[in-house]
Amino acid sequence: MTPFFEIDEKIESASKKALDMCAPQFEVIDDITEFNQLKVQKAFIDNGISETHFTTSTGYGYGDRGRETLDKVWAQVLCAEDALVRHNFVCGTHTLTTALFGVLRPGDSMLCVTGTPYDTIHGVIGITGEGMGSLKDFGVNYSEVALKDERPHLNGIRNTVDENTTMVYIQRSRGYELRPSLTVDEIGELVKIVKAKNPNVIVMVDNCYGEFVEKREPLEVGADLIAGSMIKNAGGGIATTGGYIAGRKDLVQKCAYRLTTPGLGKEVGATLGMNRELYMGLFYAPHTVGEALKSAVYISALFSVFGYDVTPKYNEKRADIVQSLGLENEESLVAFCQGIQSGSPIDSFVMPEPWDMPGYDSKVVMAAGAFTLGSSIELSADAPIREPYYAWIQGGLNFHSAKICAKLAAQQMLNKGLLKDE
């Protein structure tokens, strides 16, 4: 019996079975977590982090040691020549946009080799929207190579990359797709293919949801530039805003010129007391990502016991923290999200309903009772209301709180007569 919550014995029995199934995978996650935690700890020690790095700067922010050293710490952790870590990246999409506009110029060509990218980047590229200042508006050409059998189409990529390709863009995570997320090894294979066709091509990876899931990051297999959000994996549940860009020094400098102004770049930017939580967020990130991975593995196992389609399966190798769950109809999808919300530490009393969310082409239902609004390293579940009615679940600051949320989601479905039999 679960203390403090009323959970049906049917669900408790399935949970015990799921935990037994997860045990070997949890050992794998613990090994990765320890490796990444030690890597981060060594970077803090090598860069001599002290209380002085947490000091507030205002105005122009000239000479902010904390800001400058945070970039160095992140660069070491990610095996980058340089990094740009700032609280004033307002979200992951803004961070990616800064990188794209920082590096690409009118007449350049951007090729996405992982199919159509995540919904919120469509307006940035110019796939949707007119006259908003997209890459398309500024004369950047865009094309993509469709997936083949839910994987990157390697021959299609070989046949498409040429001397006119300026950037190859890789989305590591699945987004609202059922295709598997890309492992670092798979990203390395893509890098080899495109560099063989055009050694000068810039390979940029949207690394959101992927940091610290494996022992290596995309820059270690030849990517030139990566970017991500501090309210996903990279901030460890501590950072309340921000993002990072890392990679080749010349490219990071161009991104810095885009974020601030040409000629000033990384030399300005008041930190306004945010340094401490950005450092703490990085320090906590490997452990927090490990907890999120355990949460995803458990949810996959639990709902596979009930007969639902899950991807990845509980015992598959993972490349990000996202778990997809096929709930088969709108009613079950909404009930699942409502159950997740009911166990959240914040806004547990809120009843999620589908709504028209900016940046998406269909209604979205979202469970997100988080300390930081929009945080994806805290447990959340969301889905567009469209067939085949999959929920995308990510995060979990600690496994035990995520586990009860998963049970409550099953309980909500059971209460409505929607939960399948084991």
Short description:
Helix content is 38%, strand content 13%.
What is the structural class?
alpha/beta
Total strands: the figure is: 12
How much strand content do the residues show? 5-15%
Quaternary structure of the protein? single chain
* Principal-axis shape: globular
Low-confidence residue ranges: none
SSE string = HHEHEHEHEHEEEHHEEHEEEH
SS field, number of helical segments: 10
- Mean pLDDT reading: 96
Span between termini: 19 Å
Main pleated sheet: 7 strands, mixed
Q: What Rg is obtained from the alpha carbons, in whole angstroms?
A: 21 Å
Work out the helicity level.
25-40%
Task: Please state how the strands of the largest beta sheet are arranged side by side.
Answer: 1-7-6-5-4-2-3
Break the fold down into its secondary structure elements and pairings.
Blueprint: H1 9-46, H2 65-78, E1 82-86, H3 92-103, E2 109-112, H4 122-125, E3 141-144, H5 154-160, E4 167-171, H6 184-197, E5 202-206, E6 225-229, E7 243-247, H7 249-259, H8 275-305, E8 309-311, E9 323-326, H9 330-342, E10 364-367, E11 380-384, E12 390-394, H10 399-415
Parallel strand pairs: 2-3, 2-4, 4-5, 5-6
Antiparallel strand pairs: 1-7, 6-7, 8-9, 9-12, 10-11, 11-12
